[in-house]
Amino acid sequence: MSKKISVLLAEDDENLGQLLFTYLQNKGFQVILTRNGKAAYERFTKDSFDFCVFDVMMPEMDGFTLAKEIREVDKKVPILFLTAKAMKEDKLHGFDVGADDYLTKPFSMEELLARMNVILKRVMPEEIDVNSQMYIGKIKYEPELRILHVVDGAKKLTTKENDLLLLLVKNQNEILDRQATLRAVWGDDNYFNGRSMDVYIAKLRKLLKEDENIEIMNIHGKGFKLLIK
Question: What integer pLDDT is reported at residue 127 of this predicted model?
Answer without folding.
Answer: 46
